[in-house]
Amino acid sequence: MNALRTLFGGCMVLMVLGGCGPAERPDAIVTIDGVRHACVVALHNEAQGSTVPCSDVVAFLRDELRLASGSSYEVRTVSDVDAAEVTRVDASLKAAGYRLIGRLR
Q1: Cα–Cα distance between 8 and 59 in angstroms, integer?
Q2: Under a CB-based contact definition with an 8 Å cutoff, are residues 62 and 46 in contact?
Q3: 3-class secondary-structure state, position 74
Protein backbone atom coordinates (compact mmCIF):
# COMPACT_ATOMS: atom_id res chain seq x y z
CA MET A 1 0.00 0.00 0.00
CA ASN A 2 2.86 2.41 0.82
CA ALA A 3 4.49 1.64 -2.53
CA LEU A 4 1.25 2.53 -4.29
CA ARG A 5 0.99 5.82 -2.39
CA THR A 6 4.60 6.65 -3.20
CA LEU A 7 4.08 5.87 -6.86
CA PHE A 8 0.86 7.88 -6.99
CA GLY A 9 2.45 10.81 -5.13
CA GLY A 10 5.44 10.80 -7.47
CA CYS A 11 3.18 10.80 -10.52
CA MET A 12 1.18 13.73 -9.13
CA VAL A 13 4.34 15.78 -8.57
CA LEU A 14 5.50 15.09 -12.13
CA MET A 15 2.09 16.03 -13.53
CA VAL A 16 2.03 19.29 -11.63
CA LEU A 17 5.60 20.23 -12.52
CA GLY A 18 5.20 19.08 -16.11
CA GLY A 19 3.33 22.29 -16.92
CA CYS A 20 6.13 24.41 -15.53
CA GLY A 21 8.51 25.23 -18.33
CA PRO A 22 11.64 27.31 -18.08
CA ALA A 23 11.14 30.98 -17.33
CA GLU A 24 10.69 33.24 -20.32
CA ARG A 25 13.95 34.60 -21.66
CA PRO A 26 13.85 38.32 -22.51
CA ASP A 27 14.32 39.37 -26.12
CA ALA A 28 16.50 42.27 -24.93
CA ILE A 29 18.38 43.23 -21.80
CA VAL A 30 18.63 46.90 -20.81
CA THR A 31 21.31 47.65 -18.23
CA ILE A 32 21.13 51.09 -16.66
CA ASP A 33 24.59 52.25 -15.58
CA GLY A 34 24.38 54.80 -12.79
CA VAL A 35 28.04 55.84 -13.04
CA ARG A 36 28.04 56.51 -16.80
CA HIS A 37 24.44 57.77 -16.85
CA ALA A 38 23.84 55.61 -19.91
CA CYS A 39 22.13 52.37 -20.87
CA VAL A 40 23.68 49.24 -22.33
CA VAL A 41 21.26 47.42 -24.63
CA ALA A 42 21.79 43.86 -25.86
CA LEU A 43 19.83 41.01 -27.34
CA HIS A 44 19.54 38.09 -24.91
CA ASN A 45 22.15 36.08 -26.86
CA GLU A 46 24.74 38.86 -27.21
CA ALA A 47 27.77 38.76 -24.95
CA GLN A 48 28.25 42.52 -25.18
CA GLY A 49 25.71 45.25 -25.74
CA SER A 50 25.77 48.74 -27.15
CA THR A 51 25.95 51.83 -24.98
CA VAL A 52 23.26 54.36 -25.81
CA PRO A 53 21.73 57.32 -23.98
CA CYS A 54 18.84 56.03 -21.88
CA SER A 55 16.49 58.40 -23.71
CA ASP A 56 17.30 56.53 -26.97
CA VAL A 57 16.66 52.97 -25.76
CA VAL A 58 13.31 52.61 -27.54
CA ALA A 59 14.67 53.91 -30.85
CA PHE A 60 17.69 51.61 -30.56
CA LEU A 61 15.55 48.54 -29.88
CA ARG A 62 13.19 49.37 -32.73
CA ASP A 63 15.60 50.68 -35.39
CA GLU A 64 18.94 48.97 -34.70
CA LEU A 65 17.92 45.67 -33.11
CA ARG A 66 14.65 45.46 -35.08
CA LEU A 67 12.58 44.35 -32.10
CA ALA A 68 8.89 44.71 -32.71
CA SER A 69 6.43 46.11 -30.23
CA GLY A 70 5.36 43.30 -27.91
CA SER A 71 8.90 41.96 -27.51
CA SER A 72 10.07 41.33 -23.96
CA TYR A 73 12.85 43.01 -22.04
CA GLU A 74 14.61 42.81 -18.70
CA VAL A 75 16.04 45.77 -16.81
CA ARG A 76 19.29 45.49 -14.88
CA THR A 77 21.02 48.18 -12.89
CA VAL A 78 24.71 48.79 -12.22
CA SER A 79 26.02 50.98 -9.40
CA ASP A 80 23.84 53.61 -7.81
CA VAL A 81 21.04 54.25 -10.26
CA ASP A 82 18.56 57.05 -9.78
CA ALA A 83 15.11 55.54 -9.31
CA ALA A 84 13.65 58.26 -11.55
CA GLU A 85 15.92 57.11 -14.41
CA VAL A 86 14.68 53.52 -14.05
CA THR A 87 11.10 54.78 -14.05
CA ARG A 88 11.70 56.89 -17.19
CA VAL A 89 13.27 53.97 -19.08
CA ASP A 90 10.49 51.59 -18.01
CA ALA A 91 7.76 54.09 -18.93
CA SER A 92 9.21 54.76 -22.39
CA LEU A 93 9.56 51.03 -23.13
CA LYS A 94 6.03 50.27 -21.93
CA ALA A 95 4.63 53.19 -23.94
CA ALA A 96 6.30 51.72 -27.05
CA GLY A 97 4.59 48.37 -26.37
CA TYR A 98 7.54 46.40 -24.98
CA ARG A 99 6.86 43.95 -22.11
CA LEU A 100 8.86 43.97 -18.88
CA ILE A 101 9.51 40.41 -17.70
CA GLY A 102 12.15 41.01 -15.05
CA ARG A 103 14.30 43.41 -13.13
CA LEU A 104 17.68 42.64 -11.56
CA ARG A 105 19.60 44.92 -9.28
Answers
A1: 54
A2: no
A3: strand
Q: Does residue 4 lie within any of the structural domains?
A: no
Pairing of strands 38-43, 50-52: antiparallel
* pLDDT tens per residue, range 30-83: 999 998 899 999 999 998 999 999 999 999 999 999 999 999 999 999 988 999
**CB-based contacts of 34: which residues, under 8 Å, 6+ apart?**
77, 78, 79, 80, 81, 82, 85
Q: Compute CA distances 3 → 7, 8, 13, 15, 38, whole Å.
A: 6, 8, 15, 18, 60
The answer as to whether 7 is a domain residue is no
State how many domains the chain has: 1
Q: Identify the domain containing residue 53 by its residue range.
A: 24-104
- Give residue-wise pLDDT tens across range 12-33: 444 444 444 457 899 999 999 9
Q: Is residue 19 part of a domain?
A: no
